[in-house]
Amino acid sequence: MASHIERGTAFRRATMWTLQQIMENGAMGVQITISGKLRGDRSAFEKHTAGILPRAGHHADVIVAEDIAHVQTPMGLIGIRIRIARKEKYVPEFELKKKEAKEKSKKVKPEKDVKEYTDESGAPREETAEEKKARTESEQIALEAEKMKELETLEEEEEKLI
């Protein structure tokens, strides 16, 4: 983006093009802040965002990558700050919560919420992916991975035909 602005491309056009390229390449969210002598004698700033971008807290520390670049133009100095929330990064559960959950599971609980799944003959069976409900984000990811294994791809169908 900095090189586009150095070459004389309009800053809004360069910002929108960069924003679109980042989102097409699989980012969860993007924020581009451009500040400096943009239009006239006075300095100004503009923020452009797309997608989901955590701004503060633990999630922002883990997921968001940030970089700053400076560009010298005939109008003056322009600063560009790009923040990208990456999909491949996941937020781990906190250790404290895991320890509390283990301690709670050790205590005896009444089994009112436990469902038994049986087939037509009455024999017990495992619950299917549709019947499972995730309580945490990592459980949801594991359920989606199981669903992906069950899906037939076009390559598999192609191999069957050959």
Give a structural overview.
There is one protein chain. This protein has 6 helices and 6 strands. It has helices at 2-6, 11-24, 58-63, 95-106, 137-150, 154-161; strands at residues 27-36, 44-51, 64-72, 77-86, 117-118, 124-125. The protein has a 4-stranded antiparallel beta sheet. The chain has a two-stranded antiparallel sheet with strand order 5-6. A hairpin with a 4-residue loop joins strand 3 and strand 4 (77-86).
Going by CATH, the homologous superfamily of the largest domain would be: Ribosomal protein S3, C-terminal domain
Largest sheet: 4 strands, antiparallel
What is the domain total for the residues?
2
Order of helices and strands: HHEEHEEHEEHH
Name the strands of the widest sheet in spatial order.
Answer: 2-1-4-3
User: Which architecture of the largest domain per CATH?
Assistant: 2-Layer Sandwich
Q: What is the CATH level 1 assignment of the largest domain? A: Alpha Beta
